[in-house]
Amino acid sequence: MAASLAAGLADAGVSVARFGACTTPAMFMSCILPGHEYDGAVMITASHLPVNRNGAKFCTAEGGLEKKDITTLLMRAAELAVDAGQLPSDRYNDHAFVITAALQASSALVRVVDFLPEYAAYLREVIKKAIANPEHPDSPLAGFKIVVNPGNGGGAFIADQVLGPLGADVSASINMEPDGSFPNHTPNPEDKKAVQATRVAVLEAGADLGIMLDTDVDRSGVVDAAGNGINRNRYIALMSAITLRENPGETIVTDSCTSNGLATFIQQLGGKHFRFKKGYKNIINKGVELNQAGVPSPLMMETSGHGAMRENYFLDDGAYGALKIVVEMVRRQLEGAGDVGDLLKDLREPVEAMEIRVAIQASDVRSEGDLVTAAFKQWVDAGCGGADHWQLEPENYEGWRVRVTEEGGKEGWILLRPSLHDPDIVLNVESEHVGGMRAILHHLLEFFKAHPEFQVCTGRVEEFVYG
Ligand SMILES: O=P(O)(O)OC[C@H]1O[C@H](O)[C@H](O)[C@@H](O)[C@@H]1O
Fold first, then answer.
1. What's the predicted TM-score (pTM) here?
2. Which atom of ligand 1 is nearest to the CA of 420?
């Protein structure tokens, strides 16, 4: 399969630029930046997932390829392999083999390009232009201390090649050495250890800001000068505050797992909230579609830290988001407006938040997932087992989300949906008072107890901690 794809590329006279270490947004920009404008790019990465889940990410100037495009591409490679009398290689690593072999196809066609410095130069220009400091335009970050935590992934260049050369002191940055075994913590801005390590580094250094990146830099989160972790809903809220100031009244698209308080926050800022589905590609596609339909939507963000902006080619780009926060930090300091974290003072937050992933044990995972969600909808329609404080949300784009009225005017919610990629049913629950989540889950158990036929087993719990 791999050899035949390589042969196919060589036959077609495709020339290949090999970048070495790269990031997802950089790869995309290689299809856009003048002087480069490659027809397509591909990288091998496990993204934020463990090392044994490496895969290939493909993109063109139109953005990341859709699942169906990649399927077509790989099927075509497989057909060529069969035509050439070859058997597909190891099924767990096929994608990696395909790409590796393609890049090594014919040395005459392969050029080694050191692209990251050029991409970094582009990002520096973006920041310089946004800050436009009249006194020191080339070092607009002079006097600022910024901690970058790339989690031993590919994002160290943000400190070394972007923020440092613009004058920032990045010496307190941590986990800068790329190491695919991720010895310090999972490179995931939602990860408790990633937040804690960044917080400690920021507070010890007396830094103005901390930036957390995932391995391939398409997800991010920040820590403010007071050490508050700004990820998940907080990060969307912060980005919304900046974006809605620049684009008043427009629509922010998010995934389905955002807090009720975030919707209120966006509305209070004069914006509109479109709570769509999980999956960064889903929200980006929805944002593109809304803009085309005349509903201006400048920001699409997931609680995972994935985010795309209309002003940045609708690119799934963690670095760009974090750099917007850097620019905001400078702007606020110049205006004497205080820390970026202060922008979140009106955000109502859950007291408890949890994700439970219930493994589906049936062989037909998709059908079983649909069965469980359909039964849940029926149970909700029939009155949620007598709980009249449970109300189905009027708009649901995946699974079913129920709003739970809690004591003292507080509100919780629960969302049950099939996972996008894993053989799991995913349950997200939030509550605005201590013990509320337990009460919601306790009541939900009645639903599962009424369906002993479901082929599911005990869930894996992810607890989200704020602050
Ligand atoms: O549906 P889930 O299993 O929760 O996975 C959902 C996640 O899948 C991938 O990791 C995508 O990159 C994310 O954008 C998405 O949020």
1. 0.91
2. 1
Q: Are 310 and 298 in contact (CB under 8 A)?
A: yes
Q: Residue 190 C-alpha to ligand 1 middle, in angstroms?
A: 13
302 C-alpha to center of ligand 1: Å? 9
Q: Which residues of 112-149 are buried (b: 16+ CB within 10 A; e: fewer)?
A: eeebbeebbeebbebbbeebebeeeeeebbeebbbbbb
Nearest CA to ligand 1 atom 5: 420
For residue 306, the ligand 1 atom closest to its alpha carbon is 14
Compute, in angstroms, the gap from residue 277 CA to the centroid of ligand 1: 10
Question: What DSSP string describes 173-217?
Answer: ----S--TT-SSS-S-TT-HHHHHHHHHHHHHHT-SEEEEE-TTS
CA of 255 to the centre of ligand 1 (A): 10
pLDDT tens sequence across 338-363: 999 999 999 999 999 999 999 999 99
- The answer to whether the CB of 35 falls within 8 A of the CB of 22 is no
Ligand 1, atom 15, lies closest to the CA of 279
- Cα separation, 173 vs 150, whole angstroms: 9
Q: Are 114 and 20 in contact (CB under 8 A)?
A: yes
Contacts of 135 (CB under 8 A, 6+ apart): none
Report ipTM for this prediction. Answer: 0.96
Beta-sheet strands, E only, within 172-323: 209-213, 220-224, 229-230, 251-254, 272-275, 299-301, 307-309
284: CA distance to ligand 1 center in Å? 13
Tell me the pLDDT tens digit for each residue of 407-445: 998 999 999 999 998 999 999 999 999 999 999 999 999
Closest to 327 (Cα-Cα) out of 146, 94, 110:
146
Q: How far is the CA of 421 from the centre of ligand 1 (A)?
A: 7
Residues whose beta carbon lies within 6 Å of some atom of ligand 1? 278-280, 302, 304, 306, 419-422, 426
Count of CB atoms situated within 10 Å of the CB of 444: 22
**CA 176 – CA 19 distance, rounded (Å):** 19
In this structure, are residues 48 and 214 in contact, taking their beta carbons and an 8 Å threshold?
Answer: yes
Q: Which atom of ligand 1 is nearest to the CA of 355?
A: 4
Q: Whose CA is nearest to atom 7 of ligand 1?
A: 279
Token couple for 440: 């919601």
**Domains parsed from the chain with CATH numbers:** 2-114 (no CATH), 115-229+318-346 (3.40.120.10), 231-316 (3.40.120.10), 352-463 (3.30.310.50)
Task: Return the residue whose CA atom lies nearest to atom 3 of ligand 1.
Answer: 419
Backbone φ/ψ region at 57: left (φ over 0), alpha (ψ -120 to 50), beta: beta
Q: Are strands 424-431 and 456-463 parallel, antiparallel or unpaired?
A: unpaired
Rounded distance from Cα 398 to ligand 1 centre (Å): 13
